[in-house]
Amino acid sequence: MSAETIVVLAPLVPVAAAVLAALLHRWPNLREAASVAAAIMLIACLVALLPSVLAGARPAVRFPEMLPGLAIAFEVEPLGLLFALIAATLWLPSIFYSLGYLRANGEAHQSRFFACFALSIASAVGIAFAGNLLTLFLFYEALTLVTWPLVTHHGDEEARRGGRTYLALLLGTSTLFLLPAIVATWVYAGTLDFVPGGILRDRVSPGVATLLLLLYAFGIGKAALMPFHRWLPAAMVAPTPVSALLHAVAVVKAGVFSVVKVVVYVFGLDAAGADFTPLVTVAAFTLLAASVVALRADNLKRRLAYSTVSQLAYVVLAVALIAPLSVVGAALHIAAHAVGKITLFFAAGAVYTAAHKTRVSELNGIGRRMPWTFAAFGVASLSMIGLPPTVGALSKWFIVGGAWQADNVLALAVVVLGTLLSAGYLLPIVHRAFLRPAAAGGAAHGEAPATMVVALVATAALTVTLVVFPDVPLALARGLVAR
Asked: For residue 2, is it left (φ>0), alpha (ψ between -120 and 50) or beta?
């Protein structure tokens, strides 16, 4: 099978899984087996592309033009393949976790859940493979629409309210900021194709380039830069597997991936004359402000949601420094945050399922009843903070090196302070779980269902595996800055 055939096949695999999820709604075991088979097939497709992409090839497929010069186009480059591999790899444990969670909690509309989840993965792969801004925009919007039913899954007023905020902010930012930026890029550059070195070089003034940069940054609302971040905590009304999808597998990763891709392939690492200082400032503020909110949050999912806002800002800050080391760090942090944050949300869902607890203040002593869950939570917390032996330490090391390389003392200070704040809102949870006495009179319980525990332990193990065997993600990340 040719690489080009695989490029077309890969996004169709999760689409087929979505169709099967709908058709097999009366046979849940077959429905979930079809999803597992599709996830394995998608991973196999992406792994098959690895050797050629690492060797410098860029498999591409261009469909017939809709307008002169405008066509849906796929092209697999290192950053896109890294993002697609993250989404596909984490889809597999998400399926096992979801079936345990949905059944244990008696959730309705499970077939719709699995179908929309699969369509979300298809949209994420489409974004990852986008060969131009038009293709990226179409799949970016598709991702918003297919995840909305997941956000509103419970169907009550709180879910509908969260869904309205979700749609309003994501569709609003993409329509008001991202689409005009894409149109302006077309006018100035005469193309929307992603090109190494950028397509705006010598075509716009520094002032226009800076304005376009900010339109892209705020228009890609899934990157959750303040003040357009509220959709993310609002979406926490969804079931925990959806929270994991939003924060780790697809949605926010599509946001920061798109920001990095635009910087590298639209502006170029010389930034086409743009002043990146405003973007560095916004990212730094978001990183610290979200961490402070997380420190004060007692609701566990809310704390993790604002942690995500903060962690995404590391990626934006790193790429905004436009130093080779920081750009590599930005790409690596997409992977590091994905495996760490999905573990944290899996753990939160396990606590809700087993103990029906949602607040940090309720977690005293729970680690002794749920040792596997909170051991995994602890490992993932180390990765979010950036401590060894986890992949978060590796990505933070490159980001710090990039800040030093860019001679940006502000960015360096923000990364260090953000790391301390991360420890401040994550480590006390582990301390409570293992070292504080449990409240008297609590109901007896153990771990969550086995499929949930296996999934969260597997993703926690990935945070260590990726730092012990970093060759593939590191090679793909370095492909961004290869000359």
From this structure: beta
Higher pLDDT, 198 or 283: 283
Give the Cα separation of 210 and 220 in Å (integer).
Answer: 16
- What is the C-alpha to C-alpha distance for residues 128 and 198, in angstroms, rounded to an integer? 18
pTM metric for this prediction: 0.94
Other Cβ atoms less than 10 A from the Cβ of 76: the count is 26
- Distance, in Å, from the CA atom of 343 to the CA atom of 333, rounded to the nearest integer, reads 15
Contact 252, 223 (CB under 8 A): yes
349: three-class secondary structure by DSSP: helix
| pLDDT tops 70 at residue 444 | no
Q: In the predicted model, is pLDDT for residue 66 greater than 90?
A: no
DSSP, residue by residue, 252-305: HHHHHHHHHHHIIIII-TTGGG---HHHHHHHHHHHHHHHHHHHH--BHHHHHH
227-233 long-range Cβ contacts below 8 angstroms, 24+ apart: 228/169, 228/173, 229/286, 229/290, 229/309, 230/165, 230/169, 231/165, 231/166, 231/168, 231/169, 231/170, 232/305, 232/308, 232/309, 233/302, 233/305, 233/306, 233/309
Say yes or no to pLDDT of 181 above 70: yes
| pLDDT number for residue 364 | 92
- Model confidence at 236: pLDDT above 90: no
- 203-211: long-range contacts at Cβ-Cβ below 8 A with a sequence spacing of 24 or more? 203/272, 204/272, 204/273, 205/273, 206/273, 206/274, 206/275, 209/267, 209/271, 209/272, 209/273, 209/274, 209/275, 210/274, 210/275, 210/278
For the stretch 18-30, pLDDT in tens is 999 999 988 988 9
Nearest Cα to Cα of residue 24 among 107, 143, 114: 114
Q: In the Cβ-directed half-sphere of 108, how many Cα atoms lie within 13 Å?
A: 6
* Dihedral sign, Cα of residue 227, residue 217, residue 402, residue 273: negative
Confidence at 249, pLDDT banded by 50, 70, 90: confident
Going by the DSSP 8-state scheme, the letter that residue 222 receives in this structure is: G
Note whether 271 and 209 are within 8 A (CB): yes
